[in-house]
Amino acid sequence: MAPYETDDSAKADDEADDVRSGRHRAARYVVPVAVVGVAAATIGLVPALASSGDPDLPKVTAQQLIEKIAKSDVQQLSGTVKITTDLGLPDLGGLASGFASGAVKGDGGSTADPQSKLMELASGTHTLRVAADGPDKGKVSLLDNAAEYSVIHNGKDVWGYDSKSNEVYHATAPESADVKGKAPHDVPATPKDLADEALKSVDDTTSVTVDGTAQVAGRDAYKLVVKPRQSGSTVGAISIAVDAKTGLPLKFTLTPASGGAAVVDAGFTKVDFSRPAASTFAFTPPKGAKVTEGDDHKGAGKTRHQGPDKAFRQGDKTLPKGDKDLAEGRDGVKTIGKGWSTIAEFDTGGQGVPSGAKGSSGNSDVDGFLNSLGDHVTGKFGSGTVFSTRLVNALITDDGKVYAGAVTKAALVKAADAAH
C-alpha cells in the first residue's frame, strides 16, 4: 500500500513515486520532531487547530499538498507564534531550566547562549516573535513577562541577548550550504521547523492524508495529517496547517497515542509576509552587558550537544533489512527497527539506575528519588528502569545499556530482550 492516502479511490504507481520525490524536496526546503534533542524529544501544544470556520478551498491530494510545501519559497515574514509543551513531566519548580543555566555558566558560558536558553521551550506555554528576510537575516524573541530573550542572525553574525541578566552571546554564522538559511539554534521554534522533522519521518510506515481546511492567523489553510501505520509508537497523529497561498506551515500539532492534550502544538497567531524593517535585525550590545564569544561553527552542521537525540534522527535513514533491522550509528549508537518504531540503543559504559535501597550514589535518599521517577522492569536482559514522558520513553538497564525512542515501554523491553 502506498505511504500516502488521498481522497481518490485509485492511485497510479507513478503518483507514489512523485510523492516520495516531493517528500525529499520538502525535507530540503522546510526549515525543525523532534524535541529530538530538546526538540524532538520534548515539545507539545494543547488546543486543536484554531479555526474561525472552515474555508472553501480547491480540493488537493496529500501528494499535491506535500509538493506545495516543497515549492514554498517564503523569504520574508514576521509574526507571533504560540508554542505549548506538555510532556507530562513532574513540576520541579524551575529546577530543569535553572540547572541548564547553571551548567552553562559553570562552563564559562553565558545565559544568553541559545543552546541553553531555548531549552525553556521544552515545557509550558511561550510566546515568540519571529522575523526573517532571506537566508541570512532572522530573529526569534522569547517573551517572558517583563524580560525578553532574542536570537538574531544578521549576515555573518549570530547574537543572543538576555535582557534579564544583561548578557550577550556572539558567534559566527555557519556558511555551509547544509545549514545556510536555518535558524541560528537547534531547537524547533516554529511550525516550519517542526514540520520539517515530521516530514523526514514519512516513509512506507506512514499514512498521510488531507483532512479538510482551517483558518490560522487569519489565513486559509489545508490540514495535512500524518499518522504511524506501525503499532508500538507513542505518536498518535501529527496535524500540519499549510497556508493555501504560500505553502508555508502555519500550525503544527502532535497528539499522543494515549490521547488527551497534545504533546506539541505550535502555531502562528499573527503573520505578515511583507519585508521586515532592516532595523529588526540590527543589534549592538547594550552598555555594561557581559559579552561571551561562542564557537565560530567551523565544523558547520555539527551541534555542541551530541546525545541520544542524534540517534532518533538516524531513524530517517533506510536501515538494512533483517529480523531486527539493526544498524550501527555514529558515536556507538545503534538503531533498532525503522520508521516510527525506531529505537536508539547505546552503552553508557557504566552502571544503570540503582535499584537497591542503597545504590551507586551511596545515598539511599537520592537513589530512592531516582527510582520514584521511573518504573522497574525485568526481562531476558536482566532488570532496569523505564523513564517515561507522554512522547519519548527510555529504558536504562542495570548494566548501563540505554534503549530510547517514541515507543511504548513494552516495545523497549522487547528490544532489550532481543538484543540480549
Question: SSE string, helix = H, strand = E?
Answer: HHHEHHEEEEEHEEEEEEHEEEHEEEEH
Extended strand count: 19
Structural class from helices and strands? alpha+beta
Outline the low-pLDDT stretches: 1-52, 92-107, 176-184, 296-330, 356-362
Write down the oligomeric state. Answer: single chain
Beta content comes to 25-35%
End-to-end Cα distance, whole Å, is: 34 Å
Reported for the largest beta sheet, the result is: 12 strands, mixed
Which second-level CATH architecture of the largest domain applies? Clam
Radius of gyration over C-alpha positions, nearest whole angstrom: 22 Å
- CATH C-level class of the largest domain is Mainly Beta
CATH superfamily of the largest domain: Lipoprotein localisation LolA/LolB/LppX
- Give the total of domains: 2
Note down, in words, how this protein is organized.
The chain has 420 residues and is an alpha+beta fold. The chain folds into 2 domains: 13-305, outer membrane lipoprotein receptor (LolB), chain A (Clam); 309-419, Protein Transport Mog1p, Chain A (3-Layer(aba) Sandwich), CATH 3.40.1000. It is built from 9 helices and 19 strands. It has helices at 13-29, 38-42, 62-71, 95-106, 114-117, 191-200, 308-314, 364-372, 409-419, and strands spanning 76-85, 124-133, 137-144, 147-154, 157-162, 167-172, 206-216, 219-228, 235-243, 249-256, 264-272, 290-293, 326-328, 334-336, 343-347, 375-379, 382-388, 393-397, 401-405. A hairpin with a 7-residue loop joins β10 (249-256) and β11. α1 (13-29) packs parallel to α3. The longest helix has 17 residues, at 13-29. It is globular and about 60 Å long. The two termini are 34 Å apart.
